[in-house]
Amino acid sequence: MDFNDLQSAWKNENTENVKLPTQLEKINSANMPLESIKKNLKNEFVYQILSIVFLGFIPLFMNFPSKGMAIFYLMFSLFVGVCIYYLVKLYRFYLTLGKTTLNTKDSLYETYYEIRLNMELYKTFGFALIPFLILFLFGILYYEIPEFFNKGINSTSFLVTTFSIVVFSILYMGFALEWWVHHFYGKYAAAMRKVIDELKEE
How many CB atoms lie within 10 A of CB 87? Predict the structure, then answer.
């Protein structure tokens, strides 16, 4: 068979049943949840920074005693240090998402797993703040009921209160973080996962 025969056979090929691949359409459908994640992440930075600034002014709003100012701002400086460490990591991730284009199956896989990884990083960030929440609650207790500490740290009431504050802080942060991450990021990551599963079935 020479070249002319091949060309003739190619032209006579029945193309009625040929279907264009739908993979590209499915991959492009993952761009919408990705844009939602980018938008939420951007808003997150604004909220986090405003919250940190607000917390810095709490002693002025609540008329802290002068002897409590130094302790508060010592704890606050540690708190800000932890926040900066994690926020820088999340900001880098945001910049990476800004350059991401979902045009191949591999880019979709990679972006999905990066999102899942940073969701876990966000939860770690929240759990790293638990000691500060515990200290903050103790500070309020000391400020509002100073006579409570006169009973001594070995008293039953002090131990029960300490146990309650620690358990409450861990459970509160755990539930709050799970809800927050799922609501603002998890459901969009799940939509991307659905696209990945559909691509696997083809």
Answer: 18
SS3 154: coil
For residue 100, is pLDDT > 90? Answer: no
CA–CA distance, 108 with 101 (Å, rounded to integer):
9
- Nearest by Cα to 181 from 97, 112, 120, 114: 120
Task: Calculate the alpha carbon distances from 59 to 28, 70, 136 in Å.
Answer: 50, 10, 12
68 Cβ contact partners less than 8 Å away, ≥ 6 residues apart = 59, 139, 143
Q: How do residues 51-70 score in pLDDT, each as one tens digit?
A: 999 999 988 887 777 777 88
Predicted structure pTM score:
0.78
Give the pair of three-digit tokens for residue 13.
Answer: 């090929």
Indicate the helix (H) or strand (E) that contains 99.
Answer: none
Nearest to 190 by CA among 44, 86, 36: 36
Helix (H) or strand (E) holding 199: helix 187-201
CB 181 within 8 A of CB 20: no
